[in-house]
């Protein structure tokens, strides 16, 4: 069994208390990570504060070099990092190797180039000069989920470091290994000790303590219920950005390209076993093509190979844990009680590992339920009700619209309160474009210039060269 150390204050630290890491495909316990305590966190924050003061004074050129260095070591160790995420989390190797890990590297490279072009506005008039500077918040805590830890490290850490902050990363105890492995490579780079920290442990212990600490800001990616518990721990005002649960909808109109839409919706429902924030929870299919589309989708699902995630041929691996598998089984029973009909799948596989069949469930009435699992809910709709269905969603993360009528699709997109709307496409993401949710799906953005400015505070400095506008105000 391999023992990983956490990386805090510029050193690798182990603890007597450990968390065991299980391979969800084989149920083998193959690694262990430390359970940090409050003394570790105090040490970590102290070192981060010191490092941040130094880092804030560094030039954009020096920051660029570090970001490019992190991108480089990610790509140099791509195979190792991808295999580790697959083994720990259960994602098919083609996802970690060709999508998740490379996108993390892309983010560091992107923000390395972006900070070279940051401008500082200034304004002149006859007797005064005003300028705007951007300053970092200080020490930023980052709560990462288990499904794409290294990718979301790229989304958040690259921007925060580019902005001049120090970071304390608290990954999920179900998705820590790729980050701890990356720390070994990052440690060889030149940056202040304590600038980058990865502290491990259970959320109720170290996660709550991090939120309650005197860090200056934190970002959270994960379930809304977990966020509420973390948020309740905050003891003093600080900036918070969050990307939370989303009931993502996919809408298929009768004039859609059925072949292309079915391929994309299948991917959006079953990639990563549905354990991703952009996955489709409910597919709404126009009445006239409902039966035809379901038959096409069901037929296509037969080519999804469920099994060993380390195989290049596998399309779906296991769910992350036994607890998650049990929750999915129970969820299917709940849907049945609500008169839902299983169209395809609906059962756990009778094999070692936490595998569940790709599943389609027809719902008679609209249910705004996030399915963070390989279940796709489907429902027919008519033109008159679709805008209401879109608008009544309490969350607003991702919406897919499939139609050849681009004028109609664009009108729906413009009225929809969703952070991302994809028209005739899925997963069209880029380091340059913003990502985040509306309504109950969170606050703030990652990626693009918007992601950088989330980690910066504008400061106004005004200088007068003569009498000011209040001189002589009282005579």
TrEMBL record:
Family annotation (InterPro entries): Ald_DH/histidinol_DH, Ald_DH_C, Ald_DH_CS_CYS, Ald_DH_N, Aldehyde_DH_dom
Keyword Nucleus: no
Gene3D superfamilies according to UniProt: Aldehyde Dehydrogenase, Chain A, domain 1 (3.40.605.10), Aldehyde Dehydrogenase, Chain A, domain 2 (3.40.309.10)
Membrane-spanning parts: none
UniProt entry tagged with the keyword Oxidoreductase: yes
A GO molecular function held by the record: oxidoreductase activity, acting on the aldehyde or oxo group of donors, NAD or NADP as acceptor
Aldehyde dehydrogenase domain sequence ranges: 15-461
Highest taxon, organism lineage: Bacteria
Keywords: Oxidoreductase
Protein name, as recorded: Betaine-aldehyde dehydrogenase
